[in-house]
Amino acid sequence: MITFKNVSKIFANNLVALENININFKEGELIVLKGVSGSGKSTMLSLIAALQKPTVGELIVDSNHISKLPDHFASLYRRDNIGFIFQRYNLIGTMSVADNIILPMLPKNMDEKLLEIDLNRVLKMFNIEHKRETLVKNLSGGEQQRVAIARSNIASPKIILADEPTANLDEKLSLEFIEILKEMKSANRTIVVATHDPLFFSLDFVDRVVEIHDGKIVV
Ligand code: ADP
Ligand code: MG
Fold first, then answer.
1. Ligand 1 centre from 214 Cα, in Å?
2. 87 vs 16, 18, 105, 149, CA distance in Å?
3. What is the pTM of this model?
4. Domain spans in the chain, listed from the N-terminal domain onward
5. pLDDT tens-digit map of 64-74
């Protein structure tokens, strides 16, 4: 479903962030992308999200050549297919939980009743219903992450990308995130988690741990 074909990403000053990546992620798979800081994990995620384009090679998602999409279509692709869980939650502190979660849906001009159904589904799924009208700035770190995850799931994206999701969490909340991950997997999402947290390396519901080192996949 997600195919990297001879993909390289080279930044200014000849910095090779990714070098000739060839890999395929299947639909419904949960992949852990493992690697030390600077190895190229975030760059791989941003290519899948069409936030950046490869310098060389192709990225194919569901038979769409997303590396060739003009910017406007790249953002539509992202809106309709990708849920991104950032290390920083990118929430708006002065808005309520509910208003933060529905943000990605606003450009769709959906019927309010249908939107309410989607909102209630993710509020329940990520156990944040009771905080629905609370301003995000008044939530704990773990609650804020659940809001961010709910937001990334509201459009039922086929693909979930999580970049260092436990980097700012203590052990208890990290374990909670693992449970959330399991839940998203059972909702049949294709999930890629970029992390160097060992917690993810031996989970029985992870399909594959892919290691990346200096922009290359370790085989
Ligand atoms: P990771 O997420 O594994 O820590 P990244 O994908 O963020 O690694 O970065 C891989 C390499 O590419 C690093 O050397 C990083 O400094 C470099 N890099 C990432 N993004 C940019 C950018 N926008 N401009 C220049 N260099 C970048
Ligand atoms: Mg990173």
1. 10
2. 23, 21, 21, 11
3. 0.92
4. 2-217
5. 999 999 999 99
